[in-house]
């Protein structure tokens, strides 16, 4: 029975982002979600596509009468089906349509998020393991005999040995196992196959990421707060809806709550998705889940090899893994019966995609939760203001773990005023207190973590005579000195420059380096404590897939006493022997011109502080700063999320910043600044008219800010950057406004247009 299908072609272009009909030839099995090869265009080039719908001829004829389509006879037939199972589920296709509408993206761009890129273009193949077994087990004796010569010795000893090995084990064996018993037996194996004594087989194996050293799974008894949280989650799973916010201080056992909730979810026959920020998707976290759920989990993150990524995805798709743990994109995991979606560290900016389509993983999670009929669990020690606001207003259910497990105290936090240190004659990067504590830490055989938000050695280089600062030639930012490479590097575009010996502006040799980065902290530690071993973790030292795992493993085994690092060390880690955490310079994040800098600093300080004293020995935290009175620092000292929340919410209310409003920015760039200026001005005027028209009189007041101007970093990689920045009041009209902006952008494409960002994670 011939059928028709509608296909989206795997080409990301607005002109072809629509359904094309094809004939399914007799005998070819095609389903919704199948990955197919089709002839496309007038030249019939072979293209890959995704089957969105399948029809019988009658259904197609009925549709056609209204839609002026082609008659079936005029349709081109599909060439073949690429993958033996549908690669997209019905839910994923629905989700893609929703994304197309919500983010104004191409349908194919949304679909591409749902499958590993390795699947497209068939770049990765299944890994098949060759196996061997006896072809005729009942004739084995005579076969062995036939391999002997007259004196009873094997004529072909290798063949004899292989046959004997297979007889002894009595099982199908992989070729590699057989070769382990009988080395260099490749040609003997071929000969046995030719003789018909041995039969070949093969089965598909899955490449699994190397989990590495796994901490032993502790059997813990939940405390009362954890117990209550789990029960609340189970009730929500029974109700099949709701959003819960788990606010638990660092070390309160949130992970244990997640795992128990997942156990209950699996026990009810459903699957679970757990999102973790890429940066805290450490081998430790993964190991913990692996230990608890063994092969029932699949891991998805960017450090996997192409083959691993492909296979982990297929294990989920084929139902072999029932828990997907992964970064942002794991929200698209190809599951069909999800009972719980967890978002750990829900306040993290990395849940917002930075590439087209610019989706928010929390929004997508909310959509999927509705599809599946399941609750969402958001967790954090420092929830985003928006989530906590929603929890207090009753939209989310608030669950709290106010204390650390086993009554362990939160670490004592000391604030050191670096201005006083300087006045007292200390111009080093460590305060006296921090040096003393580091020393004690070594004495007691304990470990310390030192956090600094900048990589490199010095964050800028300037002339003491004239004040000239060395900038990147192509970007409007100062360059960072990397001592290891012995040159300057732009952290915006990556370009490098040799070190200046004289000032490029005044010619005097008074070049000086300012601002502390990770390299300098590492060096200072080495000078102070030459016997101690220091590890440095930042994007310069963590380049390969396994580097992070190796470094964390070495630190966990006690091979180093100090770990220096950027944000990478701030979250998720649970090192029982770490009793001291030092924040070398808390001010760097406060200086960033963004309405979120207070919130981000508080979150970061609370998270880093939370790495100390997680086992029996209480921990200590030292925060060095030039602004000790700053609220972000004061509240972090007291581990006082609630006071911080009420303080910061008040500030946001006064200035009508999010969560009371929303920012949208539209970025443009060009080498020609005057052209950029005129294009952006015209664009801004037209967009404003469109908004006014769509929002009406009432809505005009929702637009709190509307500006067209150079971006704060005006030049990047030689191109000038201008932006339209819009601040909208959060009202019922908000989604209408966003849709208007997206639609306008889709209808007014020009070469200078770079992107539309709703709730941009940075505004540089
Ligand atoms: P969080 O994610 O809230 O920072 P974790 O989940 O990492 O905290 O838990 C910290 C430590 O406490 C882990 O080593 C965990 O095994 C342990 N733990 C969790 N719950 C309990 C409990 N009820 N009793 C004892 N130890 C627990
Ligand atoms: Zn640059």
Brief summary of the model shown:
Helices cover 34% and strands 23% of the residues.
Mean pLDDT: 89
Which ligands are bound?
A: adenosine-5'-diphosphate, zinc ion
- Helical run tally: 23
**How many discrete domains?**
5
- CATH-defined superfamily of the largest domain: P-loop containing nucleotide triphosphate hydrolases
Strand tally: 30
**Computed structural class:** alpha/beta
CATH class group of the largest domain: Alpha Beta
What would you report as the Rg, rounded to the nearest angstrom? Answer: 31 Å
Order of strands, widest sheet:
11-12-10-13-14-9-15
Outline, from the CA principal axes?
A: globular
Q: Tell me which CATH architecture of the largest domain applies here.
A: 3-Layer(aba) Sandwich
Distance between the first and last residues' Cα:
59 Å
The name of the CATH topology of the largest domain is Rossmann fold
Query: Which range best describes the helical content: under 10%, 10-25%, 25-40%, 40-55%, 55-70% or over 70%?
Result: 25-40%
Characterize the structure shown.
- By secondary structure, the protein is of the alpha/beta class.
- The chain folds into five domains: 3-122, GIY-YIG endonuclease (3-Layer(aba) Sandwich), CATH 3.40.1440; 127-205, no CATH class; 224-406, Rossmann fold (3-Layer(aba) Sandwich), CATH 3.40.50; 412-459 and 515-652, Rossmann fold, CATH 3.40.50; 661-758, Alpha-Beta Plaits.
- It contains 23 helices and 30 strands.
- The strands form seven sheets. The chain has a seven-stranded parallel β-sheet, with helices on both faces. The chain has a six-stranded parallel β-sheet with strand order 16-26-25-17-24-23, sandwiched between helices. It has a five-stranded antiparallel β-sheet with strand order 2-1-4-3-5.
- Helix 19 (597-609) runs parallel beside helix 20 (631-637) and helix 20 runs antiparallel to helix 21.
- The longest helix is centred in the C-terminal third of the chain and has 28 residues, at 673-700.
- It starts with a strand and ends in a 6-residue tail after the last strand.
- The model has no long low-confidence stretch (mean pLDDT 89).
- The protein binds adenosine-5'-diphosphate and zinc ion (ZN).
- Zinc ion binds next to loops.
């Amino acid at each position: 029975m011939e059928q028709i299908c509608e296909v989206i072609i795997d080409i990301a272009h607005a002109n072809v982002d629509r359904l094309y009909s094809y004939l399914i030839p007799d005998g070819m099995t095609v389903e919704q979600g199948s990955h197919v090869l089709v002839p496309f265009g007038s030249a019939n080039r072979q293209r890959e596509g995704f089957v969105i719908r399948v029809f019988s001829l009658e259904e197609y004829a009925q549709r056609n009468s209204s839609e002026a389509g082609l008659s079936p006879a005029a349709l081109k037939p599909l060439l073949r089906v690429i993958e033996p199972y549908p690669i997209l589920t019905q839910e994923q296709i629905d989700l893609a349509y929703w994304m197309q509408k919500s983010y104004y993206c191409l349908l194919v761009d949304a679909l591409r998020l749902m499958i590993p890129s390795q699947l497209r273009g068939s770049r990765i193949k299944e890994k098949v393991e060759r196996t061997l077994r006896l072809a005729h087990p009942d004739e084995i004796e005579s076969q062995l005999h036939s391999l002997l010569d007259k004196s009873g010795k094997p004529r072909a000893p290798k063949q004899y040995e292989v046959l004997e090995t297979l007889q002894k084990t009595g099982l199908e064996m992989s070729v590699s196992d057989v070769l382990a018993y009988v080395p260099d037996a490749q040609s003997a194996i071929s000969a046995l196959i030719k003789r018909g004594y041995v039969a070949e087989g093969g089965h598909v194996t899955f490449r699994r990421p190397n989990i590495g050293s796994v901490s032993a799974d502790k059997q813990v008894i939940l405390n009362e707060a954890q117990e209550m949280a789990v029960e609340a989650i189970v009730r929500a799973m029974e109700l099949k809806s709701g959003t819960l916010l788990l606010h638990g201080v660092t070390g309160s056992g949130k992970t244990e709550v997640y795992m128990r909730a997942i156990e209950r979810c699996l026990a009810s026959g459903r699957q679970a998705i757990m999102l973790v920020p890429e940066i805290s998707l450490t081998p430790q976290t993964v190991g913990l889940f692996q230990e608890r759920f063994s092969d029932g989990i699949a891991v998805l993150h960017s450090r996997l090899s192409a083959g691993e990524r492909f296979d982990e995805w297929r294990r989920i798709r084929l139902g072999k893994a029932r828990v997907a743990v992964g970064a942002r994109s794991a929200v698209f995991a190809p599951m069909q019966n999800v009972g719980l979606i967890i978002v750990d560290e829900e306040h993290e900016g990395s849940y917002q995609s930075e590439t087209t389509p610019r989706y928010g993983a929390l929004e997508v999670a909310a959509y999927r939760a509705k599809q599946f009929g399941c609750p969402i669990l958001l967790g954090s020690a420092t929830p985003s203001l928006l989530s906590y606001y929603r929890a207090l207003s009753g939209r989310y259910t608030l669950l709290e773990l106010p204390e650390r497990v086993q009554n362990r105290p939160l670490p004592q936090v000391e604030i050191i005023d670096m201005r006083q240190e300087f006045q007292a004659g200390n111009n080093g990067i460590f305060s006296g207190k921090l040096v003393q504590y580091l020393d004690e830490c070594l004495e007691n055989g304990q470990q310390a973590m030192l956090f600094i938000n900048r990589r490199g050695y010095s964050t800028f280089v300037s002339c003491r005579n004239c004040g000239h600062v060395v900038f990147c030639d192509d970007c409007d930012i100062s360059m960072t000195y990397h001592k290891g490479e012995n040159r300057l590097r732009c952290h915006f575009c990556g370009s490098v420059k040799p070190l200046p010996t004289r000032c490029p502006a005044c010619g005097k040799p008074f070049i000086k380096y300012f601002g502390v980065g990770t390299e300098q902290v590492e060096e200072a530690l080495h000078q102070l404590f030459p016997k101690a071993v220091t590890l440095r973790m930042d994007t310069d030292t963590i380049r390969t897939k396994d580097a992070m795992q190796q470094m964390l493993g070495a630190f966990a085994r006690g091979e180093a006493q100090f770990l220096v690092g950027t944000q990478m060390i701030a979250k998720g880690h649970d090192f029982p022997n770490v009793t001291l955490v030092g924040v070398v310079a808390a001010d760097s994040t406060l200086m960033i011109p963004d309405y979120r800098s207070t919130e981000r600093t508080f979150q970061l300080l609370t998270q880093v502080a939370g790495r100390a004293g997680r086992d029996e020995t209480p921990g200590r935290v030292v925060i060095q700063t030039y602004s000790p009175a700053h609220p972000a620092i004061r509240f972090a000292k007291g581990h006082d999320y609630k006071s911080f929340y009420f303080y910061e919410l008040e500030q946001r209310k006064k200035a009508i910043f999010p969560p009371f409003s929303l920012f949208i920015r539209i970025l443009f760039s060009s080498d020609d600044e005057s052209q950029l200026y005129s294009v952006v001005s015209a664009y801004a005027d037209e967009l404003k008219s469109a908004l006014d028209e769509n929002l009406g009189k009432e809505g005009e007041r929702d637009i709190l800010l509307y500006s067209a101007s150079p971006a704060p970093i005006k030049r990047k990689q030689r191109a000038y950057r201008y932006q339209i920045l819009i601040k909208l009041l959060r009202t019922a009209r908000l989604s209408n406004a966003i849709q208007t902006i997206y639609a306008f952008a889709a209808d007014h494409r020009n070469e200078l247009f770079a992107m539309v960002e709703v709730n941009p994670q940075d505004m540089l």
